[in-house]
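Lab notes, practical 5.
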Amino acid sequence: MKNSLIEENIKKINLAIEKIIDGLAEIFNVLKITETDEYSELRDMFIIKRRFIEVFDMFLSIFHHLVELKFLRYKEDEKKQSEEVLSLDLFKEMCDKLKNEVFN
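Output from the prediction step:
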């Protein structure tokens, strides 16, 4: 279950990175072919601003997924620690029972 969540988050991060690269490529293409007409410049600047917002949104999305991955790893480590404590308690209990059987 957790591995699938981790894989899903990694896929989302990769998709966000691809969108960032596409957005930056479009921004650079628009900047490269910008015409001198005022209307075209305004249109191009609007496109560039929109793409920058989309790129920034993708960075926030990546940050969100990285935080989620860290949380999943923390929960997994916490579960392992509780299992280790439980197994240590069971071991002590078994030793006590064995000791009682042998000496009684």
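Observations recorded by the TA: The CA atoms of residues 2 and 73 lie 9 Å apart. The mean pLDDT is 78.
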